[in-house]
Specification:
- The protein is of the alpha/beta class.
- It has two domains: 286 residues, P-loop containing nucleotide triphosphate hydrolases (Rossmann fold, 3-Layer(aba) Sandwich), CATH 3.40.50; 64 residues, Elongation Factor Tu (Ef-tu), domain 3 (Beta Barrel), CATH 2.40.30.10.
- 26% of the residues lie in helices and 26% in strands.
- It has a seven-stranded mixed β-sheet with strand order 2-3-1-4-5-11-6, sandwiched between helices. It has a four-stranded antiparallel β-sheet with strand order 7-8-9-10, with no helix packed on it. Strands 12-13 form a two-stranded antiparallel sheet.
- A hairpin with a 7-residue loop joins β12 and β13.
- The radius of gyration is 21 Å and the shape is globular.
């Protein structure tokens, strides 16, 4: 069996506790068809919080890895803990990720643990994008989240999606009702009866035309700073139409270079904006071939470095990043960096200094 590595996304979802990370993940799996019913954190019915202790506490303690299909890609998704006590679990996951989605609470912005996981992603040079969640809560403020990302994380946040309203009907004169795609210049409204599975596209509301124009101008001004190949700059300066595909390609290049972080928004609880987040994962986050070769130590010569490129025909190398006890035996989660792992293969374990069977 052959795999097109350009169609693989190994990503993680990281955040401060209670930012809505697991709820967002549940919606991702639901819309991708990986599950047929939405689970709830409070009810202990989410797929990624599978451990009884997680279900009892209503928080993620252990990382979980679930593969699914979206558009033409296979996405291997790792949901990580948000609580500061389980930072080591996040770091183990970040070592094996190609890209990450960082979830922020629209009311609270950058919090202590979200700052910690952002720095960890910097450490492992992981390209990332941002999802501003909970736009429906009291005090939700999209612009403020962007400001805290810039000030506290020293990041270059690039909004691609902006909210229509903020807060709920009870606490806001203009409650959160949908989102606007700045590239397509379309308003998107989601059907609550289908739990957000269906949505409709409309023209931008008249009362938001000036705001959308300002955000688009800022978007293109920021992109032209990184447009060394003149992919869109000339068209922008001449006031001509710019193909969306060309803009996405430039955003992708600069996301992979960790120069910018695309920003989207929505609400897991209100089923808004998650499909656009999934699309953006395939558009902008890296595939294994986009990442630099992995460098490790020779098992017998500690002073000698070994370099492995992401090539199925190269010598096999992998890192075990998670072990789960199962009634049928321990399950090992591996990130394969090179080569191919087949059933009944015998692989060298440098820790035990012995070969082991892969079943």
């Amino acid at each position: 069996m052959s795999f097109d590595l350009t169609k693989i996304r190994n990503i993680g979802v990281i955040a401060h506790i209670d930012a809505g990370k697991t709820t967002t993940t549940e919606h991702i799996l639901f819309y991708a068809g990986a599950k047929h019913k939405l689970g709830g954190v409070d009810a202990g019915t989410t797929d990624t919080d599978y451990d009884p202790e997680e279900q009892e506490r209503g928080i993620t303690i252990y990382s979980a890895c679930i593969p699914f299909k979206w558009l033409d890609c296979t996405i291997n998704l790792i949901d990580t803990p948000g609580h500061v006590d389980f930072t080591a679990e996040v770091e183990r996951s970040l070592r094996v990720l190609d890209g990450a989605v960082v979830v922020f609470d629209a009311q609270k912005g950058v919090e202590a643990q979200s700052e910690t996981v952002w720095r960890q992603a910097d450490k492992y040079q992981v390209p990332r994008m941002v999802f501003v969640n909970k736009m429906d809560v009291v005090g939700a403020n999209f612009a403020n989240v962007l400001a805290t990302i810039k000030d506290r994380l020293e990041a270059t946040a690039l909004p691609l999606i902006i909210p229509i309203g903020a807060g709920s009907i009870k606490d806001s004169n203009k409650p959160f009702a949908g989102i606007i795609d700045l590239l397509e210049q379309k308003a998107i409204y989601f059907d609550a009866k289908t739990e957000g599975k269906t949505f409709r596209l409309e023209t931008v509301p008249d009362d938001m035309a000036d705001e959308v124009a300002t955000y688009r101008e800022n978007l293109f001004e920021m992109l032209t700073k990184f447009d060394d190949k003149d992919a869109i700059t000339t068209l922008y300066l001449e006031g001509r139409d710019i193909p969306v595909a060309a803009v996405r390609q430039l955003i992708r290049e600069q996301t992979l270079a960790r120069q910018i972080q695309p920003v989207l928004c929505g609400s897991g609880r209100e089923h808004i904006g998650v499909q656009q987040l999934m699309d953006a994962v395939t558009f902008y986050l890296p595939n294994p071939l986009d990442r630099p070769p992995v460098v490790g130590k020779h098992p017998d010569k500690k002073d000698k470095e070994e370099v492995r490129k992401p090539d199925p025909k190269a010598p096999f190398s992998a890192l075990v990043f998670k072990i789960v006890a199962d009634k049928h035996g321990d399950l090992f989660y591996l990130r394969i960096y090179s080569g191919t792992l087949k059933a009944n293969s015998r692989v060298w374990n440098p820790v035990r200094k012995a070969k082991e069977f892969a079943s």
